[in-house]
Amino acid sequence: MKRNGIFSKLFLILVFVFLYAPILVLVAFSFNASQSSAVWGGFSLQWYAELFQDRYVLEALQTTLLVSILSAAIATVAGTAASIGFANMKRRARTVCMTINNIPLTNADIITGVSMMLLFVLALGALNGLFGGLGLRLRLGFGTLLIAHITFNIPYVILSVMPKLRQLDPNLAEAALDLGATRWTAFRKVVLPELMPGIVNGMLIAFTMSIDDFVISYFTAGSQVSTLSMVVYSMVRRRVSPEINALSTLMFVAVLLLLVVINLRQSRQDARRGRRALRP
Asked: What angle do CA 274, 278, 280 make, to 5 degrees?
């Protein structure tokens, strides 16, 4: 038994090393004075300074963050509403809807990207034909990119919120209505706080998937807009600039701090609920 415990701990350590060693190497080489990705040339902050002077990378970062934040927020609202609708359906209808919801998750990104591109081209062509006389020329760009990200983010939010809805006691909302609360008040003060952990998790997953996406963005962004993943891909064909190491380090630290804040907030809420439950 003791030997099995040692092997289990060793295996866990190897898993964590395999997962986080590349990130630690990236963080270390973001402070490398040399442009080489294999030779340490001394400690330097020059790549961080050049990063904030690179207009092309900063514009791509701005576009990526804007699309990720907007798509995550809109997908969270739409996915939460859809989850509540699914929960109120009959079992057979809910099973059908959840099966349809899972198709984009199992579908290949390239199929989703190409199909969305064809849909947008068809729709924009029809709109240009209708309003062409007004001098209006619609094309692939930020709008189509945002719609595509919202579309593939909604299923992740639904999968995060649905388990919380299954755990929710349906009598809570009915008790609030019996005590004189309106439907909106009962939802806002009784149902929503119970769903909030799932909603936050869904929003974080949607934000992460959106900021990480390349394939769907590549097919739906057009030629006028570039995300950060598209910029990195264009650099890979030549040479990845050390500025990307600096930018990736800043993004990793920001996400890490966000997760720490959310986990601390959640642990405090759980502690408060535990103290309330112990009160006579």
From this structure: 145
